[in-house]
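Is this the right way to post structure tokens for a design question? Let me know if I should format differently. Anyway, here goes:
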């Protein structure tokens, strides 16, 4: 099935956005909803693609000098709003998680290449697999697929039921399968033990910890199912200049994940050499 591949050549802008809501989802995760004060000339929020990311400037930190890359979780184009799911991982993200309503953030956006979408919804049955903060880009991907007439299924993994994020939002777009390490909800154990992964799918999209993505990719490859993964290599500039996020690929050698990715079809990666 022919798919549309999103490209990173669309216009990038630096934009000040206001925090209109900051929801503490768990002790480690916060959901920021940002809004532009007015429509931006020659830029449409609806052009942001699932799987793309933003670089967020952290102003109120004496130890954070580089922007922080954050996946786009959701977009409300008509309201010029952007949702960011932020994991508290260090000083920079701690500051972001503690932002208050009315405060401003400067974003560089949209960055990278997103997930591919089918040319037609007919017969397309995708599974979207996410673990931890890797669930972030899958919500908007699910919404985009649903808008096409596709009913996506989701397989979400976490350490426990308390760590599962945005479950009700995902259920708005399709059925949700669950795996938890401790068995507190859904299938116990790793995501690869979930029977949903072995069903017949047209496509698997995956984002999460590297060991999880590699395991899912092996299963997809073994079942001859196309699979795309969103890499989370360490990034600095987000523009391909610093080369700190380089990934060795089968077709082009070393490429920058921030510009050539972060989404890659698994056949481009050297995971199976």
């Amino acid at each position: 099935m022919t798919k549309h591949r999103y490209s990173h050549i669309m216009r990038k802008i630096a934009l000040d956005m206001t925090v209109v809501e900051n929801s503490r989802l768990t002790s480690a995760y916060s959901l920021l909803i940002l809004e532009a004060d007015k429509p931006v000339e020659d830029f449409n929020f609806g052009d942001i693609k699932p799987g793309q990311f933003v670089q967020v400037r952290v102003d109120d930190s004496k130890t954070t000098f580089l922007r922080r890359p954050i996946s786009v979780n959701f977009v409300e184009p008509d309201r010029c709003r952007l949702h960011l799911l932020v994991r508290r991982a260090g000083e920079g993200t701690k500051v972001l998680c503690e932002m208050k309503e009315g405060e401003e953030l400067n974003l560089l956006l949209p960055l990278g290449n997103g997930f591919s979408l089918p040319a037609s919804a007919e017969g397309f049955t995708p599974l979207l697999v996410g673990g931890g903060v890797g669930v972030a880009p899958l919500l908007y991907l699910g919404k985009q697929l649903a808008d096409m007439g596709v009913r996506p299924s989701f397989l979400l993994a976490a350490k426990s039921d308390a760590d599962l994020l945005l479950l009700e939002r995902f259920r708005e777009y399709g059925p949700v399968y669950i795996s938890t390490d401790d068995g507190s909800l859904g299938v116990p154990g790793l995501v690869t033990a979930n029977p949903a992964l072995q069903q017949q799918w047209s496509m698997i999209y995956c984002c999460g910890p590297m060991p999880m993505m590699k395991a899912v990719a092996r299963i997809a490859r073994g079942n001859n199912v196309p699979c795309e993964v969103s890499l989370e290599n360490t990034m600095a500039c987000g523009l391909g200049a610093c080369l700190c996020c380089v990934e060795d690929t089968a077709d082009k050698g070393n490429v920058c994940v921030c510009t050539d990715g972060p989404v890659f079809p698994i056949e481009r990666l050297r995971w199976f050499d």
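Format looks fine. Someone answered above. Worth noting: DSSP finds five helices and 17 strands in the chain. The longest strand covers residues 13-24.
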